[in-house]
Amino acid sequence: MAARRLLTLLLLLLVVSTLAATLVPPQDEREGTTSSIERSGEGDRAERGAPAPKQLTRTIDATPDIERIELRLGDQLALTVRSGTADQVEIPALGQLEDVDPDAPARFDLLPQRPGAFEVRLLDARRTVAKITVRRR
To answer: Is the pTM of this model over 0.70?
Structure first.
């Protein structure tokens, strides 16, 4: 008898939680006001003559040549570093460290908060493979 009551209670809780989940709007719909605020901020920047931040994607190979990447403050960089050997890729000034090998590139999602020059280095090979330069807007 007690097992039957417990099973009925659990089924009732399952039905109520399922109903509640179907009534709650998805995450995207609830954040609609946030994106409109962000867009209005971008419009204000454009009216003042400042370029809007960009989302850049770069893939570099760890060769002896040093790649140069130019950013403006506020730009976001999705950086992929490929290497023919196993190593670690470090961006010391930004506190970033990722493993890399021939089958798995190192991936970084960067949003620098200050202007400057930031080296991208292979630790074991002890060499710089790229230099990211961030300038003020």
So the answer is: no
